[in-house]
Amino acid sequence: MGTFKKIIFASSLLFWATFLVATPLVSALSPEQQLLYRQGINYFDVNACSASGASTQTSTIGGAVYMLGDSITARAKDNLDTEFTAKSATPYINASTSRSITKAGTDDGFKTSGLDALDGDQDRVKNASTIVIALGTNQRDSDFKQSIKDTITKVKGYNAAARIYWVNVFSEGKGSNKIDKDAINKIINDSSDSLGYTVIDTTDKNIELDDSDKIHETIGTGTKNFADTVVGGVAGGNTADPGTQCSCDAGSIGLTGSDNESKVYNYLTGTAGLKPFQAAGIMGSMFFESNYEPQRLQSTPSGKETPAESLSPGQLSDTNLGWGIVQWTPPGKIINTFSPKSKANDLGAQLKFLQDQLDGKTTSPEKAAGDQLKATTDVVSAASTFELKYERHAGLAQPERANKAQDILTKLGSAGGGDPAADTADTATCSVSSDGSGEVTGEYSLPVAKKWFTEHEDYFTKPHHDYPAADIPVTSGTKIFSVAKGEVSELANSGWGGGAGTHVFVKDGDVVYGYFHGTPGSVRVKVGDTVEPGQLLMLSDNTGHSEGAHLHFQIEVGGVKHCPQNLLEAIGKGTTPPAPKTLPTSGCTN
């Protein structure tokens, strides 16, 4: 916020220190981070990315960790608790002797199979940011591959947003305890890509074995070796889903895009969860404040960088001086929340700070502005709301900011965004989806991800307005993917698309797939585009004739609407979908 901006300090340092000491979040931080919080400093640990865009090791894990295991995990529980905690994580470990995925363990309090344990701990699973499975040593049945699939399906049914790891087997045992380690690990490794988990490899880590059975690790050295390997594997893991390459600047927080403009847009519509027109409304002001340059100091020309650490104490506290992508005034409002101050130079870190302000966090919360922004319904009101309620410059809203916001929405919100390749690959995998609705099963996702059919079959079998269709009640902003290959034959991207609202039709011969009620400005394709199965089409919303946010999905063959049940059932079970023209036009049930 630049010249003429009014500075409002919403809360005292004492309030925030007291609040943060009381909140469970602090217990998950390192002693150094806790000290910074109690001093009123919001600590940001920026995930590092290499110059090529591939994620590299991070020093912390953070969040809740849920780990499921057998006796090997049970023996190392104390070491795992200690090491996860040291990585700023809050672990919960459910481990039991002799447990397998389908066979119950024998330890008191944990006498459940792996699948049953997940059901019993579903609240912990839902709240975990990281889930670690360490089962396989006791798996003697011939259906291990299916058991792994059942486990991951159950995990994702409770929490598709978490990072999932599977720890493979490091020992072979002897005598009656002899196991085929290589065969077990091959199944674990072979299933990882298709099911979406990362393997933590323990086979070459020299984990000290107990001589009595040559299958368990020794208490002490062995348990520490095992814990080091598991925690190190999680801490050093790519934060994206397996197979996804995140494109980001060195040091940024999972940003995707070819330039700063597209990176800002993708972050605001992805991680921050804003609607495309709301993101564009912010960016209309951001362009005039800084041209999206994170080290921009007020009254300096575009392209001239002023690093955070170079500002003097007087500049940091100058209430007539702005700095950063939204020109925070005084500059210390954002810079003083980082340690070291150089971390404030990062674009991703500044976007995260802005998001936290709009959510009512940080020592300078802007929740009132954030709530009003999220209540807007078009790009012009979004631009003026952000300008007058957050930036708070003197005078009325400036028309050029709203015009710029409209230009941004047209450019980035309708034709594939700032980075079409990243959109096609589902950019949300570089940040974590909040509700699991972006789960991908094979090459398909919503509306045909397995969870949406197996858990809510009634969505697809009820008559809809006297004809067959599926209504899937997902929250606004959920990513909607194409069911099948075809050509985009019609779309509306403004919200004014008749009863369908923002919508996309994909045509494949005489078969037409319809996706209705999307977010205005969110359509990622153009008429005439050829789309592939699993390609991102738009975001869900509540436009057109709609009562509550949802996706309306329908199939027409030769102009006749068909029941989608058979198609979705086939995809839900992971089999090849039947030809749509063979589907019945009746048979949907109440």
3D structure, described in words:
The chain is 33% helix and 13% strand. It is of the alpha/beta class. It has 3 domains: 13-44 and 258-422, Lysozyme; 63-235, Rossmann fold; 437-582, Glucose Permease (Domain IIA), CATH 2.70.70. The strands form 4 sheets. Strands 8, 10, 11, 12, 13, 15 and 16 form a 7-stranded antiparallel sheet that branches. Strands 2-1-3-4-5 form a 5-stranded parallel sheet, sandwiched between helices. α15 (367-374) packs antiparallel against α16 (379-391). 50% of the residues are buried.
Q: Layout of helices and strands, plus pairs?
A:
Blueprint: H1 13-22, H2 31-38, E1 63-69, H3 71-75, H4 77-86, E2 89-95, H5 114-120, H6 122-127, E3 130-134, H7 144-158, E4 163-167, H8 181-195, E5 198-200, H9 221-235, H10 260-269, H11 276-290, H12 313-316, H13 332-335, H14 347-358, H15 367-374, H16 379-391, H17 399-412, H18 420-424, H19 450-454, H20 458-461, E6 463-464, E7 467-468, E8 470-472, E9 479-481, E10 486-492, E11 502-508, E12 511-518, E13 530-531, E14 536-539, E15 551-557, E16 560-562, H21 565-572
Parallel strand pairs: 1-2, 1-3, 3-4, 4-5
Antiparallel strand pairs: 6-7, 8-15, 9-14, 10-11, 10-13, 11-12, 12-15, 15-16
Helix pairs in contact: 4-9, 5-7, 7-8, 10-11, 10-14, 11-16, 11-17, 15-16, 16-17
Q: How many helical elements?
A: 21
The overall average pLDDT, rounded, is 75
Main sheet summary: 7 strands, antiparallel
What is the architecture of the largest domain at the second tier of CATH?
A: Orthogonal Bundle
Which fold does the CATH topology of the largest domain refer to?
Answer: Lysozyme
